[in-house]
Amino acid sequence: MKALVTGATGFVGGNLVRALVEEGVSVRALVRNTSSSQAFQGLPIEETLGDLEDIVSLKAALQGCTVLFHVAALNTFWARDPAQFYNVNIGGTRNVLAAAAEMGVERVVHTSTWAIIGRPSEGELATEDTLPNQEDLTGHYRQTKYLAEREVDAAVSRGQDVVILNPTVPVGPWDVKPSPSGRIVLDFLRGRMPAYIEAHLNLIAVEDVAQGHIRAWKHGRTGERYILGNQNMTLLQVLKGLEKITGKKRPRIKLPMGVALVAARLDGLVEGVLLRREPRIPLEGILHAKNRRAVDSSKAIAELGLPQSSVTEALHRSVAWFQEHGYV
Fold first, then answer.
1. Do the beta carbons of residue 113 and residue 143 sit within 8 Å?
2. pLDDT at residue 270 greater than cutoff 90
């Protein structure tokens, strides 16, 4: 059987490709002509050129495929042209679902995000059923990922077999670009983190996220959402872990959230508006961190058999990979 993976050049997608190859699955990776294949370099897979905005290329890529893993998205809190979020995250999802239906693909596994899970009541954990409010969906990234899930809901109502996954914060090797979590590790390694904020995260080994995708394909229920997470942590706990792993000193200054928001707005004005480049402190990222949430992954553990590998060891692998590949 053959699987098509969109977003194969990214962090989760690249690790998914590796896991599928280990499972003996024939893999076809959808890549753009501007993409780097470093994430799966040397693996025995097929690459095909295509674009989420070109449905003809998507149908060609899906020829002969049994399953589609739709991992691709504009996974950032900032873009020069905000229309990209809507074209890629919503329009791209609509296109891949339509192409998969037309080409007779048996199942689609759609990668969403934990960023659109709502905030639970005080002292409780958020689940797949915790609905977001308007504040939870601030910013183009979260709005478009939320609306992409509505495209999936519509496809399921038409009889299409689709499963939704909501990964939390993956860490580990092959973080080529790097991802937002990888940038935290890199900033720490490079000594570019003079302070930290009160942020609540849920970390999971990226290899476990990849396995969660495979198990969702095999065992997930049509139309269901599954949070792929592991350990609820604060950013300070992550930094303490990195300090222990590397021997480097963590930042001691805790930045008040109000100060962080002002800094993010100023950085967005200078970097984003005036210089037209990605801010070092994206406002949407700070707003996401401000909305405290801890999540419950028990549904994915029970129904999919989601692995729960050591997050500390995943951080070790992340650090080692960046060091071995010349990032620091």
1. no
2. no
